[in-house]
């Protein structure tokens, strides 16, 4: 059922009429309208539904979600309370209620709400993770995360896009090793330590690790595997060794805390907690986590790749190296393939690479990287979490490694992330990109 | 920076001769399903970073071939040959491939799609250190077309200044003095070859893999379990017939093939 199915058939507001006849269909119609951005249309249906069927929890819940999205926090809390009253044992309502209250900074009310929930044994895990999320929010409130994000942003070591481009260019010109890595949600999930503070956030962290493992490899079987856990230590070592580290920024922190995201909050904040000490030691520089997009949109990647330096590429796109090579002024010195992230397999399409990135392909790529000296080569690395280790290996062998992430997908015409929806902006040929900015 | 092709070739040949695991990225480009088993079934297991590029689907356009093999359609025949290849690879490398790509050109029509094949090979071969394919020897026109396509793709990569893999060859078949020869190269004193006798385990593996290519059983009886041979691929002059060999598919077909080679080279 979609909103289109409820388009007027004689009546101008069929959704209202349908709410009286079929409440479930009305909710679905409202959801469809909401997803199309017609918040008012969806709200009209839900208001009528709640008037006609005040005993139905899902009407209140959906109305609460609409209000939450519209920024009406107190209205949302009121409607969530009605939904909980109508069905006290509904887990989905509980999760949404708790996150809404927590996102509004009302942690006491969120905890009260959670403690009143009559959890069944099969709901206990989810409830425990919610409890740990609230504990995390108390321990690491938005103000702390924001302070860390601002400390990074305002640090003299924070580089804007032009400065990052200049640093990469200087490393190539001077034949010096260089590594730019970006730490996003996935890296944050593996920076987070389940044993931290006596395992106080263990369930939450493990759930986030499992989720990201399924995204990367299609399974969470690696969650407790010794070799993969050992890899974490190598990953952590790449961070202080990197020339530039891309981390999350204050606007993203606000978003994650605003929705009390169970994965976004601890992942982003733990990345910041982990890198904050580097602001005062070593010589690592910082930039925004979205630097890959900025390097493309500013034309920096275009300029760097056509400056005459040989290019290396690690990606899951078999045709991308040749596509790069066909661009004027680009010489591809090496191209290594890794299996795609399984969550995006349908978007990326067949690559001919069976299995997951870890362990087999990881071992092959690492071996190939270790066989050569990469001095003077500009490596574009699009290989997720394991890609940070590749960047480290490349820099250790004299090369210049830039973590380009999903830009490789966009260059291949694959919109794997919401931010890449407008693929025309991310064409490999760069379109009408601006000239270099002054650092 | 990147390893030079001569060093790579030596490492591949040395690894194959010693039957030692080879961690270089090696592509095997074959014209038909079963060529991989015939040419290098005994050593594939040692290629730890193996990409298989299968150019034809093994089913000719003429439906009579499918019917003779017991299949109702060409597509069914092609599907069966794909399945046989998958089974054979499970035996030869226990399914452990870095990558496999099927170009799905109809059997016998490689020359008609040569420009596309060369471009796809450019895309795929830039990702490997070395490539093994058929020699140019007048045995089967698809084999000769594959030899041309690999040489041309590597030449394009090199001309552009990008990485081009080292080229090597495995044996297929050809005819000398009216006699069919399998498992041997046309002799060329300038092209030393390595000879890798099959160990009992390799012979067992190869026999089992050949048995997987069920639809080809009558043809495969021509190929024994002698040593496998490999050598560096020369730079062939495809405007001339292969030296020292008879053209099994006829001079007229070769002339047509040669014109296609010239046209693709000029692109």
Automatic annotation (TrEMBL), chain A:
Source lineage: Bacteria, Pseudomonadati, Pseudomonadota, Alphaproteobacteria, Hyphomicrobiales
Pfam families found in the cross-reference section: GT-D-like
Gene3D superfamilies: Tetratricopeptide repeat domain
Protein known as: GT-D fold-like domain-containing protein
Natural source organism: Methylobacterium frigidaeris
InterPro entries reported for this sequence: GT-D-like, TPR-like_helical_dom_sf
Domain GT-D fold-like: 160-410
Automatic annotation (TrEMBL), chain B:
Coiled coil: none
SUPFAM superfamilies named in the record: LmbE-like
GO molecular function: hydrolase activity, acting on carbon-nitrogen (but not peptide) bonds, in linear amides
Pfam families in the record: PIG-L
Gene3D superfamilies assigned: LmbE-like
Protein name: PIG-L family deacetylase
